[in-house]
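Lab notebook page, bench 4
Experiment: in silico fold of construct C2
Operator: M.H.
Input chain length: 311 residues
Purpose: comparison with the prior construct
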Amino acid sequence: ERVSFRQALASLVRLGRPLFLVGGFIFFGLGTAIACYEGYDLGAHLWLWGQVAVTAAQLMTHFANDYFDLDADRANRTPTYWSGGSRVLVETALAPRWALYMALVLLAVALAATAQASRSAGAPAIAVLLAAVILSWFYSAPPLRLHSRGVGELTVALVVPVLTTLAGYTLQTGRIGRAPLLAALPLAFFQFAMLLAIEFPDAEGDALAGKRTLVVRLGAEACIRLWRLALALGLLALPLLPAAGLPGRAALAPAVFALPLLAWFWRRLRQGAWRQRRWWDWLAFFSIALLVGAALVELVAFLSLCLAAGR
């Protein structure tokens, strides 16, 4: 079946999942806002090239994941809005090679933007960006396929909230700072929990295709305990951050947003909602909302601190 240019373009847009790009702007912006709070003069060109690198790497991951995980997506009989890939390669006549072509183009864009930023940024910023791009590629790409080696969830928790926030900070400051690492700590736990939430609906198809996520490796019961632990650690980290040096407003504000969601999660998990297909979309949605919402609250808190200081 031939695909028209219009259909191919629409399919590529769906493959890119533009809604998910919002998080990259928030995490990168958080790192930039922390640099502003610490009194650094911000360079617009560094922000621009850094954001291009982050967004290109994020899009690259979306295309690469759909291409390299096609067998798992085809075997998945229980996809949800948030899991099971974009479904474009499974449900349309778009040739899978186009996803690979787009992933490679975006990899080149991410590396080119990193190289452009390197003209003004220091070595720490370039190292952070390169690490994020490389880990993002090998999350699903062979030969590493990190998501099938028991470290995929940790990889994403490192790349998305930690390295992306750190990239925004180091591009402006030229150094690795403690504040962005502290700010990203609870977000890393929430990201880990989010990955488990979206892996449950995919577990059967992933197992059939040899995609060895933690849910496939450890089983549902063990991963529910990990899920609860990650949520608890993310919450418990928040009141400890001021003692470690993070401004109280930025450290504690996410708790106001997170507490109702965490209470809902705890109740639903105790009721075994993860076993019921009707709850899968909601568990994934609120996991994403918890992560992105907490990061957004931190970003707003640091921006308000910058404004209060007249920066």
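Observations: The longest helix spans residues 277-308. The CA atoms of residues 57 and 72 lie 22 Å apart.
Next step: discuss at group meeting.
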